[in-house]
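Researcher: Here's a chain I'd like modeled. Treat it as a single chain, no partners, no ligands.
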Amino acid sequence: MSSDEKYMRYLKESREKVQKREKTMDLHGTKRRLDKTTFVKHIKELLPGSELLKSHHQSYKQGDIILREHQENRRLFVILDGYVKQFKRSDEYDIAIDLQGPGDFMGLLSFQTGERVFTTARASSDVEVLRVGQGSLDRIQQDYPEISRVIQGLIFSNLSERYRRVVTLHIEIAQLSRELEKERNNLRETISELEQTRNLLINQEKMATLGELTAGLAHEINNPASALLRSVDYLTRVLPEMTEQAGALPDTGLVRAFLESGMQREVQDTEQQRAKMKKLQQKYPHLSRSVLRDMAELNHEMLVKVTPYAESSDRPKSLRLLLDSHKAGVFLASIQLSTGRIGHLVKSLKSYSRDSRAEPEVADIRLGIQETLMIIGNRLNDIEVDLNLPEIPLVKCYVGELNQVWTNIIINACDAMDEKGKLFISCGTASDEHVWVTIADNGPGVPDKLKDRIFESSFTTKTAGGEFGLGIGLAITKGVIQKHSGTISVRDRMGGGAEFIIHLPVYKGKESLG
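Model: Modeled as a single isolated chain. Structure tokens:
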């Protein structure tokens, strides 16, 4: 049932209640009930024998327009049978405002005042009316004075009924307004609770993801930490000896030169190092394999400087001092790299885990993608990552929530490829209004029948024996993107696999978020 039909049904029921409460008035000195039904029945009984009444009897089919809004009207319409809907034009739409039935008058105000018709009257069913002008009304008064008096009484009754209905309507509107205000307040509280619940879910999802990545992150930190320990252990052991022996060299600047060379050492290919060791072994057969291995790490300039000490069999301590100086430089460089690596991981983790309840900030979303790749690096050991991240406009966003988006999609891609394959991440500008990010993989892709369902909160193939991985975070992912006034979709990647496309609005310096 449409809203118009429901409203018409309400009006009909309301009319029937009002008719039951109609008052009586004195006709010919007697009390008679001013009953519309009786009046209509009386008119119908008189119709067959009255040429006057028959000349004003008019029939309309369902849907016919009886009176049109804004037209002139010189007749009074009395409904004898059927129902008529009243409509008021608003902008480009007709709004149903009333339903009239047997015994009701149409065009009453325009007939009495000469003003244009206020509403459109359309037959809701087949309708019969008595349509009379002022002259005809005078004749009816002469020929049928009793009917004339009843008509006059019914006119006042119609006006009175309409007034009562207007008053009743105002009372109901006031009651509805109070109820609506109460519901509005309840809705505000509900929205606030939903927002809190949503933020809680996002944080829980983030913490769950962080928990899943803890082992990998510990592994990422463990590698540079182990390198730090090795470097410190070596330097703790050799530095005191180097300090004691440095004075024995004719040129103490050699120690610093070898130290700096070690700090700037370039990693050599294993085959190159073997070939270099083989040549050194042929040239210096009296030197041990460990010394030759350390010499093979020297560049050409340092090899030339160490040659006098390598050729002389009576200067092993000086040779060892120079090689240890070079190796100390290598370990110092390792300390710098390791501390930098740990610092970068900690910084990325701090940025990744930003509080979603904080204020939005203007950010370069590419940094969030790079930080996410750093955090989940252990999941990418056997996955080739193809990054294409040119400069793009800034976005006003909740950085921590967007990082969760990148994490969810990338982890889903890793699951889909069974931890081995190729990941494609790129970004660009769609227009002056939006930037885009695509995250794709060369896995099995998403079946067409599931493309419209993967963002549903209750949908996951991980618990349904699917052939590819889809995380439960995609519903939250879509919610975060929508919160940022963006869009997310999935399509088949050319060449196989799935591709997620995210569009986000460019920050213009004026709009706000949230």
